[in-house]
UniProtKB/TrEMBL annotation:
Positions of post-translational 4-aspartylphosphate modification: 52
Domain Response regulatory: 3-117
Classification via SUPFAM superfamilies: C-terminal effector domain of the bipartite response regulators (SSF46894), CheY-like (SSF52172)
SMART domains: REC, Trans_reg_C
GO molecular function, one term: phosphorelay response regulator activity
GO cellular component, one term: cytosol
Official protein name in the record: Response regulator
CDD domains: trans_reg_C (cd00383)
InterPro entries (UniProt xref): CheY-like_superfamily, OmpR/PhoB-type_DNA-bd, Sig_transdc_resp-reg_C-effctor, Sig_transdc_resp-reg_receiver, WalR-like, WH-like_DNA-bd_sf
Keywords assigned by UniProt, alphabetized: DNA-binding, Phosphoprotein, Transcription, Transcription regulation
Record carries keyword Chloroplast: no
Amino acid sequence: MTQILIVEDNLEYAEEMADYLGELGHGVSITNNAGEMWSALSQGNVGVVVLDLGLPDEDGINVIPRMRQLYPQIGLLVLTGRVNFDSRILGLRLGADHYLTKPIKFPELAAHIEALDRRVGPQEPAPTPSKWTLRLAARQLELAGQAITLTEKECNFLHLLTINTRPVPRQVIVAGIGGDDPDAGRRVDMLVYRLRKKARTGLGQDLPLRSAYGEGYSLSASFNLS
């Protein structure tokens, strides 16, 4: 059985869930906010996270890509009251393994957790620090002591790719950089073109940016965030 971390601000509901899962033989711990969740994850013994999106200190949707980057082998199951289609799609594309909505019967929840448990493996060692650094406040991209200044959308685009280990779909990129017009897809292409040119000219090296047909964009090298 796996070690489960329930991240849920409704403590009564979380305790009922934990009691049921504990009776099945799982080890279960509870936290009601994102800050305590990160602390618990740093202990290194969590196999599956059951994540509510309505947390008091951070929107759970923003937790998903960061968790996927830092803990790629942990099973991530979203359990939320956000039932609309767009939220489901966004949650899955950002990295959730399963997206379930409340109310749910605990036997069904347990079945999803057991499915995740079958694929959970040991944590991979942390990657070697990258020579690339994205400075969010200054909107700069640095490499080997040189830096280029980014526009707000360029910075948001690279940040979105940095916190995701999987290709980011174009529609998620459009939402992430603030585009909402019918021509937004073409604007993404132009943004990528300008970024590639800016990196080649200002840093003397090609941007480690990969285009996956039908999937979106991803980075082929890790970026440090500052």
